[in-house]
Structures are given as C-alpha cells and as structure tokens.
Write a structure and sequence with these properties.
The protein is α+β, with helices and mostly antiparallel strands and 371 residues long. The protein has 12 helices and 14 strands. α3 (67-80) packs across α7.
Length: 371
C-alpha cells in the first residue's frame, strides 16, 4: 500500500545548527554566538533554570528535552529575536548548541509542539511564588535597592474574537483572566484587552513585580493588592511607593498610610482645583526646595529647573505639594509668569503639577544639586 498523496509530514530540524562550507576536502563550520554568552552569564547569576525547575511539574522519564531548558530557549528567543513559536526550532538551529544550552541531539527535538507542551506545564506552575523567588534572589545577587518603587500599568490589545476567553473562569483548576473590552490605553476601544501591571525599582529600573488582570479591571483597584505583595517581597513597609493619579483615591491612600507605608502620587486636575491648587500656583512664596542643574556642556548654568512648594492639605488629610518646571522665555498655563533669573519663584514652562504625599512636607527651604 503506497503513501497517501497530499499528506503532510513533519520536517525535522537540521541536525547541524550551523553553516557548513566544503572545499578541496576541507570543511569550515560557522556557528552564531552573538550576545548569548552575556545573556547566559546573567541568567546563571539569576539561577533562572534552577529556580524555574523547582516550580514546574515533575518531568516524565520519557522526556527527551527538559521543560526548563525548552523554556530557557524560548526566553532567549524573546530577548533576541521574538520569532513565533512555530519558528523557534529553526531559529535555534542557527546558533551554536552550547551557547543555546542544548546538545545537537536535543536541538533536533525542539519544535513547536514541544514548546507548546512546555508552556502548558508553565501554566500549571505557581506563578506568584515563582516570580517572588526569582525576584528575591535577583535583588540579593545584584544588590538592587528597594527604597523607592514605581508602579504603572498599560493595556495589551488582542486582535480576534476570543469568545471562549470573554469571562473569568478556571482552566485545569487555575483561575484565568477575561480577554474583554475596557478602557484602552492604546486608544483602540474596538479591541479586547488585558491589563498589565508593572512595578520597577528606582535603582536601575529593574522589574520587581508584574502581573496581569482582566481587560475590564480599572487601575485604581489594583494598588492595594500590589502594595501588599511588595511589602511581602521587600520585607518592609517604609519604601516609597510612586504611582500616577489612579493611586489618589481615599481607599488606596488610607490603605497604604494606615499600614505605615509611604507614597507619592499625582493629584488629578479636577481634584487639584477643589483644593485651591490653581490659586496657589501663582503665588511666589512658600518655596520648599529648588532643583538646580549644572550642565558642563552648556557652561556653569545654575538656574533652577524644578521648584517644589507646599500648597496645603488635601481634604482627606494628606499634604499637597506643587512641582513647577522653570523654562526661560516660556509661559506656563498654571502661572502666567515668564522665568526670571532674579526671581526663581516665578514659574514658567510646563504647567505645575499637584502631588499628594503620605509624608509631612517640611517648610524649611532646601537646595539640591543634580550634576
């Protein structure tokens, strides 16, 4: 019985992950190394594969390519090339096997089906504990300072119906998110989305915590859980939590301040007007601090570039400060004065912003140098 015509057969990855040239009985083998030695060194210090192994389901004895090693190849692909899953095997075959962390035989077993099965095993893992273990080690290994943490969120748009993912449910006993409509930060209200939340350190902008939420979740409802988890991660509550105006709700600010936390956020324009901020923006006095820039490329220029003033207390009990940017010859909407070198309190340039803080603001004048 002959082969059925038209039946597709899976093509294996070439055995030699390299370029081979032959001439006059001599063979030259070329293999790509690229940036992988640097990435491998960082991943080794992170103990990435070791920690990942500890949270993945037990391997089947018949597995020809370990799940952790396959996911490591997928991570390198995302960092370097971002090839689609069906092209990961072919992409990896162009690199030297040792820098890819695979033997030549293992490389032949790398295909889209295997990558998909490994992602299913990653889905079954305890993601929160995995992320906390990884970040805790990285903070210690690289000496990342966690005195100031910055939080923000964005939306990830999806092109397609995603009918089966339109509501929160459970898959294999694990809660899943809803890919659905919500406030689109990409200005694409026609597309379904997820909300992606990221917190980074003030020291080097190192990602400290990240998570996702259903597409119809609003930003202001995510801060309390995020702050609680950051307390668990850092082992402290006195870090400075910096976020946008979505943090400035009574529930969020009282939650952080009531547990001994510290925060800085931006007061929305409509709320700032109700606190008397607009009138205070045009007052010359009440300066708390000036940030002075000395730029060697432009000469010794000591004019202030930012000014901070105490405005008052917000009705919810938190002090309000005004931050103004000085720009020579430009007029700000918040305060109708041009910059005057002899009177740095006269603000110009970008309009002043109102900010809320959990810390009391000192009225003593201070000066800071930013070189």
């Amino acid at each position: 019985m002959g082969k059925r015509k038209g039946r597709r057969t899976r093509q294996s990855v070439p055995e030699l992950p390299s370029h081979v040239a032959k001439h006059s009985g001599q063979t030259l083998t070329s293999q790509t190394v690229g940036v992988l030695p640097i990435i491998n060194r960082i991943l080794k210090r992170m103990r990435f594969e070791e920690i990942l192994k500890g949270y993945l389901p037990r391997e089947d004895g018949r597995t020809k390519l370990p799940t952790s090693r396959t996911l490591l190849v997928l991570l390198k692909n995302i960092l370097i090339s971002r090839e689609p899953i069906y092209g990961v095997g072919e992409w990896a075959s162009g690199w030297a096997p040792d820098v890819m962390g695979l033997s030549a035989e293992e490389l032949n077993h790398l295909n889209d089906d295997r990558v998909g099965r490994c992602l299913e095993k990653l889905f079954d893992a305890d993601h929160s504990s995995l992320a906390l273990a990884m970040v805790s080690h990285v903070v210690k290994e690289f000496g990342v300072q966690l005195q100031r943490l910055h939080n923000d969120s964005t939306t990830i748009s999806f092109f397609g119906a995603y009918d089966q993912a339109g509501r929160e449910t459970r898959q294999r006993g694990i809660p899943t998110l809803a890919v659905t409509w919500g406030h689109s930060k990409d200005h694409r209200p026609d597309l379904k989305q997820l909300l992606y939340i990221l917190t980074i350190s003030g020291d080097g902008a190192v990602p400290v915590y990240f998570t996702a939420a259903s597409g119809n979740v609003t930003d202001d409802t995510t801060h309390r859980d995020t702050w609680d988890l950051l307390c668990q991660l850092t082992g402290r509550r006195d870090f400075l939590y910096v976020a946008d105006c979505k943090l400035a709700t009574t529930e969020n600010m009282k939650h952080v301040a009531g547990k001994g936390g510290r925060f800085i956020t931006v007061l929305a324009r409509n709320a700032a007007g109700g606190c008397g901020f607009s009138g205070a923006a045009c007052q010359r006095g009440n300066t708390l601090a000036s940030l002075v820039r000395q730029d060697g490329q432009r000469g010794r220029d000591s004019r202030p570039i930012f000014g901070v003033r105490r405005v008052g207390d917000q009705p919810r009990g938190f002090p309000i400060a005004m931050v103004s940017q000085y720009a020579k010859g430009r007029v700000g909407r918040g305060c109708p004065h041009q910059y005057d070198r002899s009177s740095p309190e006269r603000t110009g340039g970008t309009p002043p912003e109102a900010g809320l803080s959990s810390d009391p603001l000192s009225r003593e004048g201070k000066s800071h140098q930013d070189r």
